[in-house]
Model the fold of this input.
Amino acid sequence: MDIEGLKYSIKIVHHAGELESELADGWSETTISPPAQAAPPAPPAQAMDQPAALDRQALAAQAHALGIEFDGRTTDRKLLERINAKG
Done:
């Protein structure tokens, strides 16, 4: 049975003892699940358009791999723009 996009199974019990046994085995009397524990917020991911996301050596390695020419006057931000445009 599908309810709100989730799959459920139905089990019919005939007396209170059987109900208690099924509940102990993990069955529930309703389709309503107990409230989930709130997950801690994920740390924000650094965007690739921020030079701090990669250090200069990593940028240089990517630029060399892509055949991008640059020198010491090329800023990290400009190098990253060239990498993103080429890659």
Notes: The chain has a mean pLDDT of 77.
